[in-house]
Design a protein that fits this description.
Elements (H helix, E strand, L loop, with lengths): L2 H16 L5 H17 L4 H17 L8 H16 L14 E6 L6 H16 L3 E5 L5 H14 L3 E2 L7 H15 L3 E5 L8 H14 L3 E7 L3 H15 L3 E5 L8 H10 L3 E5 L7 E3 L2 H9 L1
Parallel strand pairs: 1-4, 1-5, 2-3, 2-4, 5-6, 6-7
Antiparallel strand pairs: 7-8
This protein binds guanosine-5'-diphosphate.
Length: 295
């Protein structure tokens, strides 16, 4: 995982370690390598440039040049900066509502339905919650079926209404059902499209306004690289969401999306998806991610 990025950084830092005496020039050379590695990992150009400038400043400010082990200090600086950039400490989910309503947003195929199930399972098994899943995709009957399959797998009830084509009404009815049945968390799975368009944005915005969720999460496929940033920005402009879910980190993906999305929308990445199974969910820890990226 993240082979390309960590290999490149390894190489860059190896170059630095190889120098008995480190000069300002080879700090600059090394940070250039770091920047190239970030760009190769699909990190936005501006973000990669800002990042490496900060690393350079810190390296020179901390007198890397005069330390006995400049390479190690340099690695630490890069790791710390990367960790900070991706969000500092991890943040939880707001479960203060009664019930707590969690709205899922994102493009079709990003992993919303799968993650809705994973989150329900996580909250049920780890936080002793009693969730209800709500299917608000009125365009694809298969999406409703998929949520029912997921619900059965984890033994969590699913509310859907195949006769209704108004997602706002379904979302509201789902919340009312949760109240009636004593479910203290409602996870609302919504319809995505293949690309950002006005209809989808208006619909998710209408649902968001109507139900005023405690938590709005944006789900994004980490394999989509630069596009992930543009999609995140489009959804954030409309929803001002609370957190990001980065899926498919088990695939052949680098860390670029995590870095760029956090920088551009400045919202915490809360969970990661690491597989298709319901258990393949992890809390996002920026420091672990930085370790993974750097190898
Ligand atoms: P939705 O259209 O946003 O609801 O996306 P789905 O939940 O249907 O997911 C789309 C595809 O990605 C499905 O085949 C999922 O099994 C798969 N998927 C979702 N999350 C992950 C993940 O974390 N890792 C992997 N490898 N596949 C995932």
């Amino acid at each position: 995982m993240f082979d390309n990025l960590s290999d490149k950084l390894d190489k860059a830092l190896h170059v630095l370690k190889g120098h008995g005496q480190i000069t300002e020039i080879n700090v600059a050379e090394t940070t250039k390598e770091v920047r190239r590695a970030l760009l190769d990992a699909d990190v936005n150009f501006k973000i990669a440039k800002e990042f490496t400038n900060r690393v350079k400043e810190k390296a020179l400010g901390q007198n890397v040049l005069t330390t006995l082990q400049p390479g190690q200090l340099m690695v630490k600086i890069v790791k710390d900066e990367l960790t900070e950039l991706m969000g500092g400490e991890s943040e939880g989910i707001n479960l203060s509502g009664n019930p707590s309503v969690i709205l899922m947003s994102g493009l079709q195929g990003s992993g919303k339905t799968t993650f809705s199930g994973k989150l329900a399972n996580f909250l049920k098994t780890k936080k002793s919650k009693n969730p209800l899943l709500v299917a608000c995709d009125v365009y694809r009957p298969a999406a409703i079926d998929q949520l029912h399959v997921v619900g059965e797998q984890i033994n969590v009830p699913v509310y859907s209404d195949r006769e209704n084509n108004d997602p706002v009404a379904i979302a509201k009815a789902g919340i009312a059902k949760a109240k009636a049945d004593g479910n203290n968390v409602v996870i609302i799975d919504t319809a995505g499209r293949l690309a950002v368009d006005e209809k989808m944005m208006n619909e998710i915005s209408d649902i968001h306004k109507a139900i005023n969720p405690q938590e709005t999460l944006f789900v994004v496929d980490s394999m989509t690289g630069q596009d992930a940033v543009n999609t995140a920005k489009a959804f954030n402009d409309v929803l001002n969401f609370d957190g990001v879910i980065l899926t498919k980190l088990d695939g052949d993906t680098r860390g670029g999306a995590a870095i760029s999305i956090k920088s551009v929308v400045n919202k915490p990445i809360k969970f990661i998806g690491t597989g298709e199974k319901m258990e393949a969910i992890d809390i996002f820890y920026p420091s672990r991610m930085a370790d993974r990226i750097l190898g």
